[in-house]
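Next comes a concrete protein, fold included:
___
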Amino acid sequence: MAGRNGYDAFSMFLLVAAMVLLILARVFYRAPFLAVVFQLGSWAALIYCIWRVLSRDLYKRQRENAKYYEKQQAVLRWFRSLKDRWQQRKEYKFFRCPSCHALLRVPRGKGKLLLTCRKCGNRFERKS
């Protein structure tokens, strides 16, 4: 394995994705089209994973892995935001700005409020 990329986080994701697709192919065995699609996806992910592990182009594989980490962090941030909003749902109400879709948090039980978006400056009225 000298001079090869080796096993990294993106390769591990591809391996897990291949296993999940293979399980889905077994679950949907009564729908032959879906089973074939999932099985082909599983094989494609597995072959790409092996190719990445054995690759000698370290710079490109490291860039791919960095892009994977960026996407992974974006998904984790979204889930953390969802968790925070769930925990704060009794004290605050959340609104989206109709103009830029930024998330705004206002205290509950204050009646009708004129909200100003901090991102774009748009003003709109909502009931808290």
User: Anything to note?
Assistant: The chain has three helices and four strands. The chain has a mean pLDDT of 93. The chain has two domains: 1-87, 89-128. Residues 58-87 form the longest helix (30 residues).
